[in-house]
Amino acid sequence: MLRYLILDILLPLLVFALLRSFLRGIFQTRRDVTRPSQQASPPSRPNVVAGGELKKDPVCGTYVSAGASVTRTVNGELLHFCSKECRDKYRVVG
Ligand SMILES: [Zn+2]
Fold it and tell me: Are 39 and 46 in contact (CB under 8 A)?
């Protein structure tokens, strides 16, 4: 009698746990595939095409595309840098 109880409860639970981990694995794989790429685009300008707009690096003077640049907000103004090094330099200067 007790054995039947165990079989009736534990077996479905085991199957359920296996199914859940199986489904979770599928969903995690899908989430990895459909995960959006890490593109740092300014949220205030959704219409900007990545790489279409050129911004001048205030440190070294290089023109970088807004989509690929390293951005930093200084006094409410969004600045674009060609690299993290330039961004850090600007912090030292400014
Ligand atoms: Zn630079």
Answer: no
Centre of ligand 1 from the C-alpha of residue 53, in Å? 16
Question: Residue 57 C-alpha to ligand 1 middle, in angstroms?
Answer: 5
Q: Is the dihedral of CA 40, 90, 52, 68 positive or negative?
A: negative
pTM of the model: 0.43
Task: Name the residue among 74, 78, 77 with its Cα closest to residue 66.
Answer: 78
C-alpha span between 52 and 82 (Å, rounded): 15
pLDDT in tens, 34-54: 555 555 555 555 444 455 789
